Amino acid sequence: MSKASPYRGINSTSSSVSPRFRKLSIFVGLVLGLILFRFSTGWSINTEDQIISEALNNFYRLNPKSRGANPYDAAVTADRLAKFFPFDNSARRIEKNIWQMWKVPSTDPDFPHRELVNKWKNENPTYKYNLLTDEQILEVLKIRFKDTVPEVLEAFEMLPNKIIKSDFSRYLLIFLNGGVYGDIDTDLQKPVDAWFDSDRNVGFVVAVEEDINVENWQHYMTRRIQFEQWTFKAKARHPILRKLIAKIVETTFQAKKNDKLQAYYKDFKGVDRCSSVDIMEWTGPVVWTDTIYAHLNSIESPTIVDIDHQRDIVGELYGPETGEGDVISWRFFAGLRAPVMIDDVVIYPRASFREDKENNCGKYCYVNHHFGGSWKNNGKGEIKPGMEGFEGDDPNEIEQLRKSDVSKRDVIPGEPEQEAAPVKLAKRCSHPYTPY
Q: Which intervals of the chain are annotated as region Disordered (predicted)?
């Protein structure tokens, strides 16, 4: 006879334990085992990797066509863009398209700069002119990226600020279609076919934005030799634009992961620099310039054609140390006064895409930018010198510095004659943007 169990209703030799009870026991045991394992290994699972993994799972779940994507890694996104939008490296000219954009169509009574737009259209009769609104751009991006590289479209829709979307839009439109882009407030000085690059096998064209050879150059520009992005040309799917788009996608997803999906600029009110991403780094001249330099230095044994090897450099040359292995750095473009070709990339001097009244435009002057700055001052437009509330750098002062023979012995305007003003250290923050 079997011995009675001390537990009421359960016999020690009985196999009547319910399956439900057994499953519950196994589940509890597994949970306890996992907890003990985590403590015993010091919680070795990397929290950041775990967050990214969970975000990727959600990303894939929402769009199965995202399989193989990793929007947190620019290299992966660049490879995917190359797969779905391969670059045609054959000898040819840049596509004859002109691209501009504004928030309303040209038929709207509030549409600005009609006379400037008409110059782009009328002086380039062999070019297809395209003016797109914000809504039209979004539709184009949905058609082209939704079923190919959807992380690009998702990044675009996550952008919190109109100016960032404007920057990203111009890169994407030229990447998809090729041609020349010009801001709505750019004044065409010479037809596009009269530009230096137009009859050459060139893939990417840009100009120096600023070249201020002073000791405290950081006070005026984010990079010593920075490239502008209010006017540029490129073949469709050019590698520079591919890398740039991938980097912007990476920055955007990193910003979302770190709860920093907010745009920062020096005159934006109520925006904490450490809980946001600097516009200049996110989609502006910083990431634009860094990507161009990175591409130029990735070319093995580049072919360089220097139209005029003389440089307009007055006094001592100031600027940061160059990186190890950087064959092409800011030093190469300092004082540039004529176009330079580096493989299929053309870099124009500063005067090419901006006003140069002294030289009456000049041989290589093609566009004048009016610098509307509608996105500045929290979207209310740029407050310029002489206007109430102006806190920025006076362009007249910048122009004077450029023309002056500035050296370490000179007094920089705005500093005491005997002792330089103390340097204010920028607030140190961790940012989602990392250069190539």
A: 405-436
Q: Tell me the pLDDT band of 10, cut-offs 50, 70 and 90.
A: very low
Pairing of strands 204-211, 225-227: antiparallel
User: Hey, which residues does 130 pair with through a beta bridge?
Assistant: 99
Tokens linked to 54: 């969970």
Cβ neighbours around 3 below 10 Å, total? 8
Lowest mean pLDDT among 290-294, 338-342, 354-358, 408-412: 408-412
- Does this model's pTM top 0.90? My answer is no
Question: Does residue 18 lie in a domain region?
Answer: no
Q: Cα 361 vs. chain centroid, distance in angstroms?
A: 29
Domain span including residue 247: 50-95+189-403
Confidence of residue 383 (pLDDT cuts 50, 70, 90): very low
Q: Which amino acid is at 83?
A: K
Number of structural domains the chain divides into: 1
Q: Residue 355: inside a domain, yes or no?
A: yes
Give domain status of residue 61, yes or no. yes
Q: Is the dihedral of CA 242, 244, 247, 252 positive or negative?
A: negative
Q: How many contiguous H segments (helices) and E segments (strands) does the chain have?
A: 13, 13
User: In terms of C-beta density within 10 A (0-12 exposed, 13-18 middle, 19 or more buried), how is residue 18 classed?
Assistant: exposed
